[in-house]
Write a structure and sequence with these properties.
Elements (H helix, E strand, L loop, with lengths): L1 E6 L3 H11 L4 E11 L4 E2 L6 H11 L3 E6 L5 H17 L4 E3 L6 H11 L5 E3 L7 H10 L3 E8 L14 H5 L14 E7 L9 E10 L6 E10 L3
Parallel strand pairs: 1-2, 1-5, 2-4, 5-6
Antiparallel strand pairs: 2-3, 7-8, 7-10, 9-10
């Protein structure tokens, strides 16, 4: 079997992982996620490191945390990723799977990043209709909540909401159902690959600025681990 690592973040990568675990072609050896130093949260999604650890513990696979600095430049990110990908190669990983759906520039970036190392990228969900995909995700029994929304594409009240049929019906027509254009990001807290649900409670909302315009653009909802 092909030895694979899976880039793990929100619902799309979870479904990509689901597909590989259900396959007879791949053996998933580990998951990896980028974590921002200083804030100790997953990059982009803004999920606390403790909740990421709870997810992978429930899934039962090893986790490789790729730590990046705050305000990480594209050059710094590329250097960190190349080092970590080479380390995966040394562990025998020959394939890396991503949950990308249709963004050609993102796919090319990943292919160009992996080619010099000799690792083959895998895109299990590529080209599937995103409306069909999100309904498949929900029909399998997965549960997920939005952690962040882009306020230029969605109102604030879409942040911190579980993705349900009602959520999908309330999306503006121009918004991709899976949020593939960055409309929202998510945290998966239950589903068939979890041994037990991840327990958390909603915390405060935080607003951050666009690094280019300086204007408020993103609304994050803090998810707090339940201790008891």
């Amino acid at each position: 079997m092909k030895k694979a690592a899976v880039s793990f973040s929100g619902k799309d990568s979870t479904l990509a992982l689901h597909e590989l675990l259900d396959s007879t072609e791949y053996e998933v050896k580990l998951l990896f996620s980028t974590v921002t130093d200083g804030v100790n949260r997953t990059s982009i999604h803004g999920v606390r490191e403790e909740l990421l650890e709870a997810q992978v513990e429930s899934i039962g696979l090893p986790l490789k945390k790729i730590r990046i600095p705050e305000q990480c430049s594209n050059e710094e990110y590329g250097e960190v990723m190349l080092k970590e990908i080479n380390a995966m190669k040394e562990l025998g990983i020959d394939h890396i799977a991503f949950g990308d759906l249709f963004l050609e520039d993102v796919r090319k970036y990943r292919e160009d990043m992996l080619k010099p190392v000799g690792i083959t990228p895998v895109f299990p969900l590529w080209g599937i209709n995103t409306s069909e995909l999100i309904h498949r995700f929900l029909s399998l029994g997965y549960r997920t909540i939005t952690t962040c929304v882009d306020l230029t594409q969605l109102p604030e009240d879409f942040s911190g909401r579980e993705i349900t049929q009602q959520f999908l019906e309330g999306l503006p027509v121009e918004v991709d159902p899976c949020g593939e254009n960055g409309e929202y990001h998510s945290f998966v807290f239950d589903g068939p690959i979890y041994k037990e649900p991840i327990r958390f409670k909603l915390g405060q909302k935080k607003f951050t600025n666009d690094i280019y315009t300086g204007q408020i653009r993103f609304c994050y909802t803090d998810l707090m681990p339940c201790k008891d």
